[in-house]
Amino acid sequence: MALKLLSQNCNGKGKASDRHFMTKSIIEETDPDIAFLQEVTSRQEIVTEFLEKDKNYRTVAVQESNIYNVIAVKNCRKLQVQEIDRAVLLKLNVERKNEPEALDLARLVVVKIKFRRKWILVACWHGPHRGYTDEKKSKHLTILLRLLGMLMTSVKAKRLILGGDFNLDLEGAQGVIDKLPSYSRNFELHPYECPSTRSAVVDYFITVKVEFTQYGASDFPEQTLSEIREKEGDPYKILDHLPVYSTTKQWKRSLISRIFCCFRW
After folding, report:
1. Are 206 and 145 a contacting pair, CB within 8 Å?
2. Which are the contacts of 52, defined by CB distance < 8 A and separation ≥ 6?
3. Which residues contact 191 (CB under 8 A, 6 or more apart)?
4. Is domain 4-264 classified as CATH 3.30.160.140?
5. Can you tell me the distance from the alpha carbon of 25 to that of 47, in angstroms, rounded to the nearest whole number?
6. Residue 182 — pLDDT band, cuts 50, 70, 90?
7. Given phi > 0 = left and psi -120 to 50 = alpha, else beta, which region is 166?
């Protein structure tokens, strides 16, 4: 079994109704097991009405100013979800040594998911950008990865899937990972070719002990493009980030788990 993932920044320059339409269409088209959504501008319409009621997702949303960052997980037997106590996250954020600057936790959503008898820490991040140099963005990513590494130990999760809009290009992100100490977690950046509609790749996934078989940015669904163009709108301005899709490598049960299942039957 594998997991289908989607990361999408849901903000842009278009009308709110068009942004909401495109966000819903992308989720309808891709049907992800886990969606990482940044800058959702309507919690009521997108999260409560669409994801929770219409599509039967379990959601965790964190408010950042007047927007929301969201993790949505399909309500199904193969995925067991545990929310992370924000107090634990806050405590770790304050206790980090040699890093006086704390993260803005309103930009971070974290849950723990059990899949194929393995616990995975799943995190969605919306990186800062206005007034931030690349050096400062890199520093924030360094702090984020160290914080998540500590959290993995705290909640006993050996795997990590971190997705989002990092507002830092691939070269900058890889530079951060390369500079982490050797005893740190084995973070892996998943790069892909920059789409022609973007000047740089800033939306991607970083994992620990999770491999992908399919990965990269894709265009918006064709039906969505057609409907927006009929309204004489530019879909690439309505949402100024393309969706990033990925599929994890098939995870097989351990030998002990398979033997246990046989005895159950």
Report:
1. yes
2. 58, 59
3. 170, 174, 201, 204
4. no
5. 14
6. confident
7. alpha
| CA angle in degrees (0–180, nearest 5) for 126-216-171 | 60
Structure tokens at 77: 């037997």
d(CA 10, CA 7): 9
What is the number of helices (H) and of strands (E) in the chain?
A: 7, 12
pLDDT digits (tens, 9 = 90+) for 127-166: 999 889 999 999 999 999 999 999 999 999 999 999 999 9
| Domain ranges for the chain | 4-264
Provide the token pair at 227: 């409907």
Share of the chain above pLDDT 90, in %: 63
DSSP characters over 149-204: HHHHHHHT--EEEEEEE-SS-HHHHHHHHHHS-TTS---EEE--PPPTT-SS--EE
Q: What three-state secondary structure class fits 124?
A: strand
Phi-psi region of 217 (alpha: psi -120 to 50; beta: other; left: phi over 0): beta
Give the predicted TM-score (pTM) of the model: 0.91
Spatial separation of the C-alpha atoms in residues 61 and 118, rounded to whole Å: 24
Phi, psi of 237 (to 5 degrees): -105, -30
Closest CA to 239 of 219, 215, 222: 219
Q: Retrieve residue 233's tokens.
A: 């709108």
Answer whether 6's CB lies under 8 Å from 248's CB: no
Q: Is the dihedral of CA 233, 22, 200, 198 positive or negative?
A: negative
Contact 164, 70 (CB under 8 A): no
